[in-house]
Design brief:
The chain has eleven helices and ten strands. It is of the alpha/beta class. The chain folds into two domains: 118 residues, Response regulator (Rossmann fold), CATH 3.40.50.2300; 165 residues, Histidine kinase-like ATPase, C-terminal domain (Heat Shock Protein 90), CATH 3.30.565.10. It has a five-stranded parallel beta sheet with strand order 2-1-3-4-5, sandwiched between helices. Strands 6-7-8-10-9 form a five-stranded antiparallel beta sheet, with helices on one face. Helix 1 links the parallel strand 1 and strand 2. Helix 6 packs across helix 7.
Length: 294
């Protein structure tokens, strides 16, 4: 996976570079918006990590310029602590995710690994069309994080003849976020505080393993329903967890949006679809994408 780092602060840029290099990714570094755009066109990265505040033109402008010519690159923006409005603007301008300063390096590693699995899954040829028996497709799987990239790609491929390539990558990342949320917070009952502490201690993999093998959670399944009608496609994801009070998410809280973990996946998912709603006791989520946006 090729990664472009755009950061004018020398210390921050070096920290990002060290992480990316140690994880074995190919990379290039740029110091400002102009250099970042030039290097982007030459290097053609799979992922770009950029600070919001960079010289010549800022990170938001960089996103908009890149999205005019390349819709498939995954963009991670870095924002100042507590600047939720800027983070939201970056996501609405075309960023796929964001991190706040000071960057949690373990969170960055986990995010890059997840995106690598998404990109690698695109290179594998897997014919699962024989599973489809009706217009309405139902899938039941064990709560296993390893299934997420393949499932997200499979579900996005069901509509590749309907949506543009740029919409498909957004859909795939959105579906991936919904599935991750269902496994982590639903099936495994991992709270935002649990995950934050695990990332801090570099023990997220151990936490997943412990919950997966815990008799309380081991048999929980994820249920996915895909529907298509004359107006839209719909993905419904249900977990067998205890649920939560989804009404608390009715109005986005920008202070929470800028926090490390809590609620971020939900808001990112909402930006990839036209309509996202939690149902029942919060363990069911419906995401719709209209053919012509209503």
């Amino acid at each position: 996976m090729k990664i472009l780092i755009v950061e004018n602060d020398i210390v921050s840029r070096e920290l990002l570079r060290i992480v990316v290099e140690k994880e074995g990714y190919e990379y290039k570094c740029a110091e400002d918006g102009i250099q970042g755009l030039e290097m982007f066109n030459e290097f053609l990265p799979d992922v770009m990590i950029s600070d919001i505040h960079i010289p010549h033109f800022d990170g938001i402008s960089l996103i908009k310029r890149i999205r005019k010519v390349e819709r498939n690159v995954i963009i991670i923006m870095i924002t100042a602590h507590g600047n939720g409005q800027v983070a939201l603007e970056a996501l609405e301008s075309g960023a796929n995710n964001y991190l706040k300063k000071p960057v949690n390096l373990d969170e960055l590693r986990a995010l890059l690994y997840r995106y690598k699995t998404v990109l690698e899954s695109k290179l594998r040829k897997q014919d699962v069309s024989t599973l489809i028996k009706k217009q309405e497709l139902r899938i039941e799987v064990a709560s296993d994080l390893h299934y997420i990239p393949t499932l997200a790609e499979f579900l996005a491929n069901k509509v590749k003849h309907i949506y543009s390539p740029s919409e498909l990558i957004s859909l795939e990342l959105g579906i991936s976020e919904l599935l991750l949320n269902a496994v982590e917070h639903g099936s495994f009952s991992i709270s935002a505080e649990d995950k934050k502490e695990a990332l801090k201690n570099n023990s997220l993999a151990e936490l997943y393993h412990e919950r997966k093998n815990n008799p309380l959670y081991a048999d929980r399944k994820i249920h996915i329903t895909f529907k298509k009608n004359a107006l839209y496609c719909e993905w419904i994801v249900k977990d067998e967890g205890d649920g939560f009070d989804w009404r608390l998410l009715s109005t986005p809280d920008l202070s929470n949006l800028s926090s490390e973990l809590q609620g971020r996946g939900v808001y990112i998912s909402k930006l990839q679809f036209d309509d996202v709603q939690f149902l029942g006791n919060g363990n069911v989520v419906s995401a719709k994408k209209y053919f012509a946006k209503q």
